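Sat 14:20. Reprocessing the chain from the morning session after the first attempt stalled halfway. Input below, unchanged.
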Amino acid sequence: MPNRLAQETSPYLLQHAANPVDWYAWGPEALERAKAEDRPILLSIGYSACHWCHVMAHESFEDAEVAAVMNRLFVNIKVDREERPDLDQIYQSAHQMIARRSGGWPLTMFLAPDGTPFFGGTYFPKDARYGLPGFPDLLERVAATWRNRRAELTEQGAQILAAFSRTLPRGSARRSGFSAAPIEGAIEALRSSFDRRFGGFGGAPKFPHPADLELCLRRWRVAGDADAGAMALTTLENMAKGGIYDQLGGGFARYSVDAFWLIPHFEKMLYDNGPLLGLCAEAWQACHDPLYARVARECAAWMLREMQSPEGGFYSSLDADSEHEEGKFYVWSREELRGLLSDAEYAVLAPHYGLDEAANFEGRHWNLHVSKPLATGAQALLESARTKLFTAREKRVRPGRDEKLLVSWNALAIKGLARAARVFGERAWLDAARRALDFIRRAMWREGRLAATCKDGRAHLKAYLDDYAFLLDAVLELMQAEFVPADLEFAEQLAGVLLEQFEDPASGGFFFTARDHEQLIHRPKPGRDNATPSGNGIAAYALQRLAALTGDARYSAAAERTLELFLPSMHEYPGGFASLQLALGEALVPPTTVVIRGDPVLARAWTRELAQEHLPHCVVLAVPAGAAGLPQTLDKPLEKPPVNAWICQGVTCLLPIDGLDALKKACERADIR
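Finished this time. Tokens:
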């Protein structure tokens, strides 16, 4: 019989709906039962594309004997970390405090009935191995500790709650103390760990870190630091040629298990691919290398083909596994390839994708990567071979797809598509971004508030800081690709909720959860980037840009308070704050607003020309003639028909420009800080 999880929207929770475990989703029913029975809680947090989550489920949660122990001793709660990042943040931090090491997924935490953690780990095997206890034995020992050492656990819980309060940033900076020093410190920290041969930072495993790469590109532009630019471009190039990138179908996997970008953890996440798509577009602006244009086109094609729902929103992820084997959908044997390709096609493809080398995946299969440059004149044969392989691969059993729609991840996809559409002039990408935004406004925006997640037409859970901040940022990017007055109005509505529900006006910064959110044991105010950018960093960045467009000082003041709060942390530990440092850069020198008015065809041509240049600190808007209700900052007259442009910083504008060449030169001067 299905358990309570059968009523949930999360594909991850639904994967456990037939378990013999008496699972609850997180909520009042489970918490009240734990308190009424004075029973500890077993909290299991994972996500649909997580390989080791599936392993633990098959070994333990599907096993009737293990489930019986769980049901006898605990109130069991299953959480999707993608739907409840608030809980995941809290209990990952708690695990780190208790275990003195970083966590991961599946996260296995044991809590007092009030939610205070007292023990935890990640994956536990059913039977003792890997130096880990068997899960059933562990359950008995934890339950005995709860019964027999309650006073110790209560004291430990009080210490953990006190430690949580100390994790909140306590800034003492003022705007007068703002400088580029934290940005320079971050670049130096990245430089010290940069892999000059393969790109990326540190050793295995290697993650993309798109915010760090964007900071490097901006530093190249602002300060002329060519080495910072080389770090970004070297990393992107090696990723694009490596096995972390799907050489047939497009899209990046979550990370590489090695230092060479060769073998990925094969799951594909929307939250990686949206930023990396936008980053490829910016890299192309910076150097016009056709590699980045090709990868952007393939990545966008993958997102539209495999990740966009019929309703317009974007799905969350693709599993690493198919048929219970990681990577099976993506890897090849030589025999299979020879059987699919002509001799000429194989002769071109084999050396290019490393098939003339030893098998690189589990000793018998090949994950395709660019090993050698393509032979001159062989492009047509390679494309013919790739088409055949892609067609054959489409007939395989596909990895599972997590079809819930998250506002924050959709926002990252919208921004990446909008930026790439503007740079490469691809209307289909812009239309896809617009459809996703329309879906969010139609299905997930109710009475002036966002729901965090939606599946099968059911939107629920109060949205988080990342949802509002990322979506605000995405709307501002979309306005540069195509200015629609209603988007500016929606941006101000999102900013209003950020200030009302999330900001701490006394101490600065934004809490991760809203004022009217469920009260948990901790209300974090995160500043560091993780797999996704920092909500505080993106909020500060986007609010500053919105202030420049509207002239509303409330937005810039909130951004300033956020930077003041986190500035001491950025000075002390500059690594990991790239999103906040991008915002700091624009606080030091505000973004330049370029308003183009006049003939719509000519205005679009001007914006298209400007999009070919690397002008990351210019916000370019082609505002249609007759647009009503514009703020004074954007309501510029058409003084010299058929088209003219205004270049402004804050309330100060240059005289209108009526020639494209003159506009390019003026933007070039304005963008160099």
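Residues 553-572 form the longest helix (20 residues).
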